[in-house]
Amino acid sequence: MDVVLILDISGSVQEKYDNALMFAGNVTYGLDIDSGNVRVGAVAYSSTPLAEFYLRDYNRRESVLHALRFYNPGGSTNTASALDEVLNTHFTASYGARSGVRKVQMLLLQRVLNVTYS
């Protein structure tokens, strides 16, 4: 599986930011990263998306967990741009996506967790 975590860091979720980050860590902890079966990337977004790390960047669970430390600048919310970033950048071979494996986007919002598979 290739999994990209998408974390809202806009101003409207500042109170819930720590909860979303903790949830992202809990999800990551349960993934089989060390064996190479799962790769994880992450995008943070407010007005624009920010690639925190790509699927190609880490191959150990502890490294991914350590990298889940996002700055929360606030700002407006542009979820569409983050989803576009994942589909057009993160899920490409040059950024570590693999052919023949399930692609999973985990959108971590203030009150809703939305997971899509392809």
Structural features, described:
The protein has about 120 residues and is of the alpha/beta class. Helix content is about 25%, strand content about 25%. The chain has a five-stranded mixed beta sheet with strand order 3-2-1-4-5. Strand 1 (about 1-10), helix 1 (about 15-30) and strand 2 (about 40-45) form a beta-alpha-beta unit. It starts with a strand and ends with a strand.
Largest sheet: 5 strands, mixed
Mean pLDDT: 86
In N-to-C order, the SSE pattern is: EHEEHHEE
**DSSP strand (E) fraction?**
25-35%
- Give the C-level CATH assignment: Alpha Beta
Which geometry do the CA atoms define?
globular
CATH H-level superfamily title: von Willebrand factor, type A domain
Number of strands: 5
Q: How many domains is the backbone divided into? A: 1
Quaternary status of these chains? single chain
Portion of residues within helices: 25-40%
Query: Whole-number radius of gyration?
Result: 13 Å
Helix count, per DSSP?
A: 3
Short description:
Helix content is 27%, strand content 25%.
Question: How are the secondary structure elements laid out?
Answer:
Layout: E1 2-8, H1 17-29, E2 39-45, E3 49-53, H2 61-67, H3 79-90, E4 103-108, E5 113-117
What labels describe this entry?
alpha/beta, 118 residues, 3 helices, 5-stranded mixed beta sheet
